[in-house]
Design goal:
The chain is globular. It has helices at residues 3-17, 32-36, 40-54, 69-82. Helices cover 58% and strands 0% of the residues. It has a single domain (3-82), classed as Orthogonal Bundle (Non-ribosomal Peptide Synthetase Peptidyl Carrier Protein, Chain A), CATH 1.10.1200.10. The chain is built from four helices and no strands. α1 packs across α3 (40-54). It is an all-alpha fold.
Length: 84
């Protein structure tokens, strides 16, 4: 999976969770929740959908580590590498 592939998946899932937002305008260092105006419930729904889509497990204690697009992508690549 390339960065572009992952970014497309993230944008699609964010758009599904928050249809009135423009996730493709996110910059790497932007706080996803703040920039898109997503509440904690919607963000949790996004993480759950992401886990299902990518076949990973994101423990609750990691949620605070993945608040930016850059951090989320790095986290996912690390998780995917660990499951190989």
């Amino acid at each position: 999976m390339t960065e572009d592939d992952l970014r497309k998946i993230l944008y699609q899932l964010l758009k599904k969770i928050a249809p009135d937002t423009e996730p493709d305008n996110l910059k790497p260092e932007d706080n996803i929740r703040h920039v898109l105006g997503i509440d904690s419930f919607d963000y949790l729904s996004f993480i759950v959908a992401l886990d299902e889509e990518l076949g990973i497990q994101t423990p609750e204690e990691d949620y605070g580590k993945i608040v930016t697009l850059k951090a989320l992508m790095a986290y996912i690549f690390e998780k995917k590498k660990a499951t190989k």
